Fold this protein.
Amino acid sequence: MERFDQIKPLWLRGSGGQERSCTQSCAAYDELLRFFEESSDLLCIADFHGQYKRLNPAWQRALGWTLEELRARPFLDFVHPDDRMVTRTEMDRLASGAATVAFENRYRCEDGSEKWLQWIASPLPGRQEIYAIARDVTRQKRLEREIIDTMDFERERMARELHDGLCQNLAGIAALSASLARRLDPLSGAQAESAREIGKLLGQTMRQARDLARGFDPLHLEVVGLATALADFCTNTGALFEIVCKFEFKKGPPPMDAQREIHLYRIAQEAVNNAITHGRARHIDVSLSSSNGQGILAIQDDGIGIPEPSERSQGSGLNTMAYRSRLLGAELTLQRRLPQGTVVTCVFPQPLAILSIRPCASKLNKNSSAAKNPDSHRR
Ligand SMILES: Nc1ncnc2c1ncn2[C@@H]1O[C@H](COP(=O)(O)OP(=O)(O)OP(=O)(O)O)[C@@H](O)[C@H]1O
Ligand SMILES: [Mg+2]
């Protein structure tokens, strides 16, 4: 198949041999050029060093920069700072010969706003070039964001209902059964014992409801920090599902702003829930660590192993995890483990600026049991 960039030199040089083949090439070139110029998708050719060589006019319409401005600087300059690391990794993949499908990153617009672009790209290693098509998916992202915000809001509401409604009622009934047991004591020891048994069961149910409420709303995360919140979550999950669920904090990342920590907490929560529900795991390890300036959240289970994408059922959990990762500028991977199970890894950047956002939290964390001794998480 002819490629338009091959046809162009022929046409420009006018040295196609016979006039007829030149005319055909020119016509083919004009046709392709028309697609290129009029496409509402953002089309480009870039080199392996990260410089645009050719862009269609849709770029200027979408981002506001002129094509000259876009060509004048390395394209990473236009990428949102939080997405540069993942973009660089994707570039390396392309340079090694792999194609890109549905990669997403954020671009800075000339007016200071940002846009989400979704990419399909393939390399031409012989020419050290990348041919790419980007689509503006900002509206879709906004919608996703709204759905996630609504989910988070609903979880908080459920947590409040559980804590302030159900738990208070249970506490009231437990108090009534305690007083009933006292009144029954002089009349019938066996009946008083039954009333105490009811009180005990109510106490257990109340603790479960409180743990559930905390799982729904890790708001205490802002106070205790991500490590302690994850440690609590693992302890509660282990107890609730009667499995081993451990948390390990290995030279963990520094505290981050609460919103980032909530995204990481939710990613871990979804991965653990999936491990239990789908993987039927009996042993789950959650760990938070850092290496080479990057934070690493890993969730490993010993379940049946995640199926290939085409065989997975259509839920929203994995999509939401991927979305939260993108917001963090993180790379999320899901792999089967040997001999069995699944490992979910989220490698996220730790921008230095974040350190100054939560000075109080960092002080709190230093004093928290999680920061002092990772093993103290395991109750
Ligand atoms: N740890 C795991 N072990 C085995 N299978 C998994 C694991 N995690 C995910 N899966 C598979 O991936 C599918 C999609 O997971 P996802 O979280 O997106 O949806 P869901 O859990 O089915 O529904 P939702 O999360 O929306 O309640 C699951 O149905 C399951 O087949
Ligand atoms: Mg799920």
